[in-house]
Amino acid sequence: MAASETKFPRKFTWQELAELNEEHNAHVAVRGKVYDLRRFFRKHPGGVDQMRLAAGRDVTQLFEMYHDFSVAKVLDQFYVGELITHELPVYPESGEFAKTLKKRVKGHFKQLGVSPKDGRWTLLRYLIFLTAIFSLWYLQTFVYCDHLIGCTIVTFWLALFLTLGHLNVTHDCSHFSVTNKPWVWHLLGSWHDFINGTSEYVWIHQHTLGHHPYTNVDEADPDIVTAAKEVPDLRRIKDTQTWLPRYFHQHLYMPFLYGLLAAKTRIQEFFILFFYKNNGPVRVTRPSTVHWFLFFGGKIFYYTYRILIPLLAGMPVWQLLFLVFVCDVFTSYYLALIFQVSHVNSNVEWPLPDENKVINADWWELQIQTTQDYSTDSWFVTFMTGALNHQTAHHVFPFVAQCYLPVVTPIVKKTCEDFGIKYNYCGTLWDALSSHVWHLKRLGRVDKQEHSSNDVSVLKQKTY
User: Fold this and answer.
1) What pLDDT is recorded for position 229?
2) Residue 463's beta-bridge partner residues?
3) Which three-class secondary structure state does DSSP give residue 80?
4) What is the pLDDT of residue 376?
5) In DSSP terms, which residues pair with 35 in a beta bridge?
6) Which of 23, 351, 389, 428 is most buried (CB neighbours < 10 A)?
7) What is residue 217's DSSP assignment?
8) Distance of CA 412 to the CA centre of its chain
9) Rounded Cα–Cα distance for residues 366 and 359 (Å)
10) DSSP class of 93
11) Which is nearest to 343 in space by CA: 446, 210, 464?
């Protein structure tokens, strides 16, 4: 008798499921059903790494994001029981909006005759970025090392290409949207460790396993995690946070503190891997030997090319520290603001689960409503943001290569219009940035009702 036909399927708590996170006992949950994937572990087209990350978790949203709904039938042969408690929030079954949207996008790529992951120009762009980074590093280290002004100018250009590298290479690979080959994702994904000096493994837990499945969900989305109530956070970005007088001017001081993001990340990831064992609310899967090699090897390579070699080349210590500081502050501001404007503003939804950890809204519709697009008709903004101005299309189709997101966005907008779903849009990047600052200002006031989110209409927000 097949496992799916057993009369008394086993009941799993989320804690029991969490223990089944290795190849020899790999189980996952999808839509409340638990599946034993040990036999499928090394057969998964997405590779072993993706199975390791999924094992021991409820992967409903991830599964439905990256697969057709019909693929769920394949799981029946692996069914072993039911999940009776939840570690993180759950959503109801997807409705017609999701099915229609996926069908339209799939049909469009079929009509184009291309794979949504076939971004050949994207790979060429990566090569250009890598060449630019090491050319500028060479100029900074060996050519202009005795010329502070020239060296500083080169550093700004280096910081720009390092930022574009993260928005393109790191981000794309964390969503497996560059070709269908897992070895390409892993090879290019190590860019984050070796070029940026920050862990791709930690980033995937935060971004791919946390932020995308639980966008703007308090105590589930690592991107909006704030300090515990007994230790108030530096900023107030959610209505659920207790107001403090210091938040009154947070719209003035917080943008400056965003410049510390890179330094904070490099320090925090050590605590995440060695002490916390979680990235916010997301458990961190025990790293494999390869991941440990990438983590420590990346750190050694990064500090060798960024610190040791310039010092050996004769660059004064004070100058090197100044240039590293300038570079980190530039990249931190750039990345923090680009990622913040899409979700941390008063135009979008901030869903809350009930006491049973159920969010009573369609996940696909919430991806639209918790996200804000901007300047989608500008190729320049699209290039400079790694297509994150098409954030809504990216959130519902994260596996699509970014070069195709401008093609997907009109389909998303039209489907939203057909189903009467709010599509958040700011006409310019400046409007989007302003919406984030306005959000900080609104939540910095004592009475949130005094500064209604309706006031952001002055930012020229459009709803389709």
Assistant:
1) 63
2) 424
3) strand
4) 97
5) 28, 79
6) 389
7) -
8) 20
9) 10
10) P
11) 210
Asked whether the beta carbons of 286 and 114 are under 8 A apart, the reply is no
Closest CA to 417 of 452, 392, 444, 398: 392
Q: Distances in Å between the alpha carbon of 435 and those of 12, 58, 186, 259, 430?
A: 43, 34, 36, 19, 9
**Intervals of the chain under pLDDT 50:** 1-6, 448-464
CA–CA gap between residue 89 and residue 354 (Å, rounded) = 9
pLDDT score of 8: 62
Instruction: Round to whole Å and give the CA distance between 385 and 403.
Output: 12
Summarised one tens digit per residue, pLDDT across range 344-394 is 999 999 999 999 999 999 999 999 999 999 999 999 999 999 999 999 999
Question: Cα separation of 456 and 344, whole Å?
Answer: 13
- Please give the model's pTM, rounded to 2 decimal places: 0.91
**Contact (Cβ atoms closer than 8 angstroms) between residue 168 and residue 125:** yes
Residue pair 388/336 in contact by the 8 Å Cβ criterion: no
Closest CA relative to residue 4, chosen from 95, 86, 77: 77
Q: Is 278 left (phi over 0), alpha (psi -120 to 50) or beta?
A: beta
- Tell me the C-alpha distance between 369 and 347, whole Å: 9
Cα–Cα dist 152/319, whole Å: 9
Q: Both tokens of residue 178? A: 């560059």
Q: How far is CA 95 from CA 58, 62, 98, 210, in A?
A: 20, 16, 6, 23
Rounded to whole angstroms, the Cα distance separating 60 from 407 reads: 27
